[in-house]
Amino acid sequence: MSVPLMDIGAQYGPLRAEIDAAIAGVLDSGRFILGPHVAGLEAEISARLGGRPCVGVANGTDALVIALNALDVGPGDEVITTPYTFYATAEAIARLGATPVFCDIDPDDFCIDPDLIEARITGRTKAILPVHIFGHAANMAPIREIAARHGLAVIEDAAQGFGGTCDGTPIGALGDLATISFFPTKNLPGIGDGGMVVCRDEALAARVRRLRFHGSADKVVFEEVGYNSRLDELQAAVIRIFLTHVDGWNDGRRAAAAAYAAAGLGEFMELPDERAGVRHIYHLYMARHDDRDAISAGLAAHGISSAVYYGIPMHLQPVFAHLGYRPGDLPIAEACASRALALPMHPHLGADRAAQVVSAVAEVVGQVPARG
């Protein structure tokens, strides 16, 4: 039996009638832009995040750009972030003319290492942008403490972390701003692009709302250069349905991770970690091995999908060559980029398929020639 990396259909299938009815309701209403479903979704996510104001935007990348813009990040500024993330994190910083300053990661949780942040702060630093990568929360307490001492803002990239927690606080309610992606493969998905900005207070939210609509609060007076970035009403209607299931889906992901461990995957690959106080929600299940590529090829021969994520860390991407980073500058991120492999992970994976994957990994690892 083949095992896909993700199984979106298994999530959507049982909800198809409810999804179809929601879409039909939007079509019948004639309200397609910033309608009641967008407002409803903003309120419902706000309620999960301690009442923080939430603003729906067109996609997760726009959420990052608008969040940075709302803090007046621009040319000459620096934003400290991780090199081990999707390009959009660093791209959003560069899009505004600011400079991403890359800080190496913790080898256990793949997130930015707080112990290394302070050495990268300069007089031009404006913000710290940690990423809750693969569904594991960044170590936010020391990050917030460093930011407070230096007068810096903290923006959470929560694209992969919705439903996770850090020391009892939900991901998305740990910084000055947070950004969410509703891309179809995320833990809280849509059926297309969509995003949200979570704000620490109403003043920031008002700025974000203005920025998402051409810099205007009323479509008549335009106060600044903004964006055309609004969460689609059809998307919001469907995401509201998925929101009622996301906790169960995340429980299913955690069960799948536990099944991998119980089936003995740790005998053959280095398993992802879960820091004390964190609720990991496994957007991706990232195991590590020195012969990652051989394992991936061997799994494919068994009909099991796997994938490499962030095989070239951001500091070594051609677009950032002008920043002067060289191989070896951020060794932990580079090691993860060369060793980490995403194994099948979704809420409906189940113990049997997890055991099937582990059995295949064991067979492949047994055939990999020893190094040295």
Structure keywords:
single chain; 372 residues; alpha/beta; Aspartate Aminotransferase, domain 2; Aspartate Aminotransferase, domain 1; 2 domains; seven-stranded mixed β-sheet; three-stranded antiparallel β-sheet; 12% strand
CATH architecture of the largest domain: 3-Layer(aba) Sandwich
The radius of gyration over CA amounts to: 21 Å
Strand-pairing-aware structural class: alpha/beta
Q: How many β strands by DSSP?
A: 12
For this structure, the CATH topology of the largest domain is Aspartate Aminotransferase, domain 2
CATH class of the largest domain: Alpha Beta
Strand content: 5-15%
Please mark out the parts with pLDDT under 50 across 5 or more consecutive residues, or reply none.
none
Distance between the termini: 35 Å
> What is the mean predicted local confidence, pLDDT?
97
In brief:
With 372 residues, the chain is an alpha/beta fold. Helices cover 37% and strands 12% of the residues. Strands 1-9-8-5-4-2-3 form a seven-stranded mixed sheet, sandwiched between helices. A three-stranded antiparallel sheet has the order 7-6-10, with no helix packed on it.
